[in-house]
Amino acid sequence: MAVALVPSGWWQRWRRRLSARDGSRMLLLLLLLGSGQGPRQVRAGQTFEYLKREHSLSKPYQGVGTSSSSLWNLMGNAMVMTQYIRLTPDMQSKQGALWNRVPCFLRDWELQVHFKIHGQGKKNLHGDGLAIWYTKDRMQPGPVFGNMDKFVGLGVFVDTYPNEEKQQERVFPYISAMVNNGSLSYDHERDGRPTELGGCTAIVRNLHYDTFLVIRYVKRHLTIMMDIDGKHEWRDCIEVPGVRLPRGYYFGTSSITGDLSDNHDIISLKLFELTVERTPEEEKLHREVFLPSVDNMKLPEMTAPLPPLSGLALFLIVFFSLVFSVFAIVIGLILYNKWQDQSRKRFY
């Protein structure tokens, strides 16, 4: 594989200024930096990757539908338009979702999300926002931005409406993240504050330029950045080390409206694989995990639910319970009769 050497300082500056919509230009530049097939090494210790098309989505949205052959499935009120996929329209009590059918087994990855939130509602009269998911279960409607509560995996929320009236510490819209092992509920009344890993204000409604979000997961390190100012620059939002996410989960995005509403649109989702060199010590530390967790953050342990009983098992349990009850009654009657006989003998 050909290797193109680029000064690390230049790469850092260029990467920071790179807009999410320039992903295709970045890939083309990397291809021009060397010959042959495969990714190009642009910085010591890291090789930037191919676009993973089976986990990516862009216009004209081919492969989106409800059939088993589609790479992406729609749910609820979500619908495909020519320029975007609308998760929910600017109407009350709607919810919709878009889910990838292919589980992701990448070790290190970066997801770039091009989205737009807009509507007729004025200040604090719009809602509720959207979420980006990397979870064990897919296509499960529920109250958490249109997805199930007590999910297993990672949720990143673009929350546009403050439910907690007394809070004065944050300005909405607000981006936050949550890792769940299936034991935690998202607290709507407090805007998810008890379980969030971090967050930042993100003024994303009714903008006349493109808005982007990037979720990067490298070496157990979760980083979330945004490009929402029209300057084509990534701005830091959340950075959390020690995040342990299993492989084989699904990417998706969902939205919900209640009494308040907005248009929640997804324009593109682009997933890139990041190939990172690891030392032998890091290889030991970064072994496969089977349940999401965060270092130094105590998540309640999940107790596995008992498997449901089959009809035959239930019948046998009831049958033997009845037999045991009859047997116990018979033994009781025999003992009672013996006791009565012994009582009569004492009186004679």
From TrEMBL:
One of its GO terms (biological process) is endoplasmic reticulum to Golgi vesicle-mediated transport. Pfam families: Lectin_leg-like. It is a single-pass type I membrane protein. Residues 49-274 form the L-type lectin-like domain. The keyword Iron-sulfur does not apply. The chain crosses the membrane at residues 312-336. It is found in: Membrane. Its main location: membrane. Residues 1-44 form the signal peptide. Keywords: Membrane, Signal, Transmembrane, Transmembrane helix. GO terms for cellular component: COPII-coated ER to Golgi transport vesicle; endoplasmic reticulum membrane; endoplasmic reticulum-Golgi intermediate compartment; Golgi membrane. It comes from the Eukaryota. InterPro entries: ConA-like_dom_sf, Intracellular_Lectin-GPT, Lectin_leg. Gene3D superfamilies: 2.60.120.200. GO terms for molecular function: D-mannose binding; metal ion binding. PANTHER family: VESICULAR MANNOSE-BINDING LECTIN, VIP36-LIKE PROTEIN. This is VIP36-like protein isoform X2.
